[in-house]
Known about the structure:
127 residues, Arc Repressor Mutant, subunit A, 2 domains
Amino acid sequence: xxxxxxxxxxxxxxxxxxxxxxxxxxxxxxxxxxxxxxxxxxxxxxxxxxxxxxxxxxxxxxxxxxxxxxxxxxxxxxxxxxxxxxxxxxxxxxxxxxxxxxxxxxxxxxxxxxxxxxxxxxxxxxx
Length: 127
Ligand SMILES: [Zn+2]
Ligand SMILES: [Zn+2]
């Protein structure tokens, strides 16, 4: 179960992991999945993110790889990006307001250009 959580790619929800384990004929309970994810988060192995909506998603913490997210508010597709310009700007804003910069996390909410695919994905998610 620990392993399964740590080999997940990208941004996954607890229920997605639970379903995957179930499909692999594992008999872990949903509570175990939630508790394990909680634990991994406390150990700083996973990062919990909220991309809007009710679902919390987890992703593996990769050192020195600060990234931000574009999130489609219709289908939930998540794309990561890196911008050193944005990073500098945010540090500058913190300094200008007399703060010591610590960390930041940005989600940019967007809508896919490919409306057909986006709607299909949105329906899949809600089914
Ligand atoms: Zn990410
Ligand atoms: Zn979309």
